[in-house]
Amino acid sequence: LSVDMGLSVDWATCNVGATEIYGKGEHYAWGETEEKSVYSRKTYKWCNGSNNTITKYCTENIHGIVDNKRVLEAEDDVAQTKWGGSWRIPTANEQQELIDNCIWYPGKLNGTEGFWATSKSNGKSIFLPAAGCREGREIRYSGIFGYYWSVASCDENSNAYSLRFYDNHISREGYGRSAGFTVRPVCH
Q: Which of 60, 91, 141, 172 lies at a CB distance of 3.0 to 4.6 Å from 132, suitable for a disulfide?
């Protein structure tokens, strides 16, 4: 299900891999479509083990093989591959639009810590669980931080943009692509 929050896209009511709005869902490395047991540069699909061996979605020689792709292709978009239809991972600008046009407040739903984002234009809300992130074999910061991938890469250190929240801080920033983050899809 989706929620029309008066923005340029509708937002899904739950994360990829979740069946309830309070479900944390699954964690994915950026551009990967399956969960795995270890999240690191050595296990990352689009790299040969280090920050300078990126094999896809690379814009600088210092990071690997340059293809100048900055946005995930449909086959590497976990929302598109798992949900189909017009579902996809949001752009960094769509995440910024959500940040800028909603009132954000921490809350708990069915025992799950997270943030509510309530539209300033129509009052509709979505709940984003603080599902933490996966690094190595561990889930870190579950119940404290929320990390949600965008479809866009950023140049610095071969990172990708994500929406991040904790305490009363909500931002869009770059993060290492090999980490496992949650995904909140959008559709038109």
A: 141
